[in-house]
């Protein structure tokens, strides 16, 4: 009761994890799985809106406020939820929502357990500690999902499962993630992927046309990358 906003976000994140899990593992049937997909994204949108309100409590209808809001990771994932909530369900798109909710819910769950007793529920504490120990790997996996969803939205467009605007709006989301002040993993993954691809195509066994194609692709993506202060 002393932290109503934090508690509301904790509950919405747990609900997001629940709905996401029932989409990934359709125990109640495929038809129900699609509805859980939407519920997970709507719950994530609610969480992101609450977090954005917590970060920027005084709303202003101005360009400066919008620019400040776009710097917040919560605004990025509010946009993310709106991009995919009415689209064809894509399993890849639910993993960032699921994993971010799981990480943040785990952090607050530990606070709740500490408030009760330092030794309460040792089995749950052990699970939370293991989750925290793998946080860096989880964040890298999320960043990898964010990157590869860009070509996935283009593929969905040509397969008739996506809208014309979706790739363009998602590109804007990806540039925001690339420029994120709090989460550098998207930039890090882009750099690591570039290094890996360049290493592979520079091998003598790599055909020349594939090397040229990859170098052209790297050059094109580099031109699209936003400038990071």
UniProtKB/TrEMBL annotation:
It comes from the Eukaryota. The keyword Cell wall biogenesis/degradation does not apply. Its main location: membrane. Pfam families: TMEM33_Pom33 (PF03661). It is found in: Membrane. Keywords: Membrane, Transmembrane, Transmembrane helix. The keyword Transmembrane helix applies. One of its GO terms (biological process) is endoplasmic reticulum tubular network organization. It is a multi-pass membrane protein. The chain crosses the membrane at residues 77-103. One of its GO terms (cellular component) is endoplasmic reticulum. Belongs to the PER33/POM33 family. This is TMM33 protein. The gene is Tmem33.
């Amino acid at each position: 009761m002393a932290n109503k906003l934090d508690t509301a976000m904790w509950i919405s994140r747990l609900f997001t994890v629940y709905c996401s899990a029932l989409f990934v593992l359709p125990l109640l049937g495929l038809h129900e799985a699609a509805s859980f997909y939407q519920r997970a994204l709507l719950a994530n949108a609610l969480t992101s809106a609450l977090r954005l309100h917590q970060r920027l409590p005084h709303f202003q209808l101005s360009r400066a406020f919008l620019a400040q809001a776009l710097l917040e990771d919560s605004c990025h994932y509010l946009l993310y939820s709106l991009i995919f909530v009415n689209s064809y369900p894509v399993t890849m798109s639910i993993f960032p929502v699921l994993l971010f909710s799981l990480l943040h819910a785990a952090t607050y769950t530990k606070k709740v357990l500490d408030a009760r007793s330092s030794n309460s529920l040792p089995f749950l504490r052990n699970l939370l500690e293991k989750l925290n120990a793998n946080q860096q790997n989880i964040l890298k996996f999320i960043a990898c999902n964010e990157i590869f969803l860009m070509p996935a939205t283009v593929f969905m467009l040509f397969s008739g499962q996506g809208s014309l605007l979706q790739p363009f709006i998602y590109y804007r989301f990806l540039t925001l993630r690339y420029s994120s002040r709090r989460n550098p993993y998207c930039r890090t993954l882009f750099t690591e992927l570039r290094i890996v691809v360049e290493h592979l195509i520079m091998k003598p066994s790599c055909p020349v046309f594939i090397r040229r194609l990859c170098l052209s692709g790297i050059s094109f993506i580099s031109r699209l990358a936003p400038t990071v202060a």
